[in-house]
Design brief:
- The complex is a heterodimer.
- By secondary structure, chain A is of the alpha+beta class.
- Chain A is built from 5 helices and 5 strands.
- Chain A has a 5-stranded mixed β-sheet with strand order 2-1-5-3-4, sandwiched between helices.
- Chain A starts with a strand and ends with a helix.
- Chain B folds into 3 domains: 7-53, Uridine Diphospho-n-acetylenolpyruvylglucosamine Reductase, domain 2 (2-Layer Sandwich); 58-173, Uridine Diphospho-n-acetylenolpyruvylglucosamine Reductase, domain 3, CATH 3.30.465.10; 179-287, CO dehydrogenase flavoprotein, C-terminal domain (Enolase-like, domain 1, 2-Layer Sandwich).
- The model of chain B has no long low-confidence stretch (mean pLDDT 97).
- The chains are: A alpha+beta, B alpha+beta.
- The interface between A and B is medium-sized, with 28 and 30 residues.
Chain lengths: 153, 291
């Protein structure tokens, strides 16, 4: 069936099978490979995108379900050549090690800061608890998200 | 991993959804949050012929209080339940369970009604519903049934819906007087199934005795287990540590946990007893306004 998903402000119209997963629509059809596939079983959060503003696991959403919706991926965080505050803070505070979880972590962090610009350590850890960092480097991720909040406020 | 091929409809109204389900019969399966169904389809454990996606049926997204109960619609996400003021005011067991369901990303998408209908014995919600005495509203093109949760949860992944029927709402009794509850969950990590989950519910009468007690257990039996024997034993009694210890002993012997990666059976049995005691102590404190 034909669907149109607005990804990072641009409409992407394709004819897809109902079983096409949103993550593959984003990576293969729209060519945005910043969204990663980790576990493919809804556990790790590497495939996190914002669907109408809420973080979701795109390996566990059908592309047809996103018809008419707005999706934001890591490629949509920066605006006008300027890094998003969360991206800048991840760079500044080394909020990444191998980088595989980073797109998901930054999207979850940006969504948290939208509603709560000054989160406590516990609130950040709670917000990222559905995203798994295989390097176990959560310390700098938490610091980076808090620093980005501080910059925005 | 990919699901096997299926047909798909996304009706815009409940009426349209029910008409589609009536036409499809056994082939039709409702897709709400999809956080259990889609993974099962990807693993090829489920292969419905036709998904009826209700995500565009906005009238089912409600969480409201009316006629003495909380109504949670089929599109209300776990995250909506967790942040609902009506829920935190009217049922502590439901309010305390919501943040423990899976992880924040899954809670943004998955629904309470979907989880209730799924009847996964390791799912959290049905223990809560069994403890608080909820009912399930099932609609089909030919009418509506209100099914007590004890009749709805039949067995392992099995509910009592007929073909063409769908869950439109779960009804949870709202507190009318002094009442409290808790859901305590032991999990190895966020997003894992419970090692053990215990839902407690306590309503006090005018003299402070137990008018009604509810106890539901997760992941320690072939389905979510309502510990009726403990509930009946507590009715009319004076609430306190002695009574809760007695209920805990009944719960520990009523459950039948497996030895598995989450722990040996004897350990889980001990956790059931301890969480039953703690859960009822929290429920009592809340009912007395000390929580």
């Amino acid at each position: 069936m034909q669907i149109t998903v607005n990804i990072n402000g641009a409409g992407e119209t394709r004819d897809v099978e109902p079983r096409r997963l949103l993550v593959d629509f984003i990576r293969s059809d729209a060519g945005l490979t910043g969204t990663h596939i980790g576990c493919d079983t809804s556990s790790c959060g590497a495939c996190t995108v914002l669907l109408d503003g809420r973080p979701v696991k795109s390996c566990t959403v059908l592309a047809v379900q996103a018809d008419g919706s707005e999706v934001k991926t890591v490629e949509g965080l920066a605006e006008g050549g300027e890094l998003h505050p969360v991206q800048a803070a991840f760079k500044e505070h080394h909020g990444l090690q191998c980088g595989f979880c980073t797109p998901g972590m930054m999207l979850v962090g940006s969504a948290l800061l939208e509603g709560n610009p000054d989160p406590t350590d516990e609130e950040v850890r709670w917000a990222i608890s559905g995203n798994i960092c295989r390097c176990t480097g959560y310390m700098n991720i938490v610091t980076a998200i808090q620093a980005a909040g501080g910059e925005g406020s | 991993m990919y699901p096997s091929a299926f047909d798909y409809s996304a009706p815009g109204s409940l009426e349209e959804a029910l008409a589609t389900l009536a036409e499809l019969g056994d082939e039709g399966r409702v897709l709400a949050g999809g956080q259990s169904l889609i993974p099962m389809m990807k693993l090829r454990l489920a292969a419905p012929g036709h998904l009826v996606d209700i995500n565009r049926v906005d009238e089912l997204a409600h969480i409201s209080e009316s006629n003495g109960h909380l109504a949670v619609g089929a599109l209300a996400r776990h995250a909506d339940v967790a942040s609902s003021e009506a829920v935190s005011r009217h049922n502590h067991t439901v309010a305390s369970a919501a943040p423990w369901v899976s992880d924040p990303l899954v809670r943004n998408r998955g629904t309470l009604c979907g989880s209730v209908a799924h009847c996964d014995p390791e799912g959290d919600w049905n223990s809560v519903m069994l403890a608080v005495g909820a009912s399930v509203v099932a609609r089909s093109s030919s009418g509506e049934r209100v099914i007590p949760i004890t009749d709805f949860v039949v067995d392992f992944f099995t509910n009592s819906l007929d073909p063409g029927e769908m869950v439109t709402e779960v009804r949870i009794p709202a507190y009318q007087g002094p009442a409290g509850g808790a859901y305590l969950k032991l999990e190895r990590k966020v997003g894992d199934y419970a090692t053990v989950g215990v839902a407690t519910h306590l309503v006090l009468d005018g003299s402070g005795n137990v008018a009604e007690a509810g106890l539901g257990l997760t992941a320690v039996y072939g389905h979510n287990l309502k510990v009726t024997e403990a509930e009946e034993m507590m009715a009319g009694q004076t609430p306190g540590p002695e009574l809760f210890a007695e209920a805990a002993a009944i719960a520990a012997s009523a459950c039948d946990p497996d030895d598995n990666v989450r722990g040996p059976a004897e350990y889980k049995r001990a956790v059931v007893a301890e969480y039953t005691r703690r859960g009822f102590a929290q429920a009592l404190a809340l009912a007395r306004g000390e929580g």
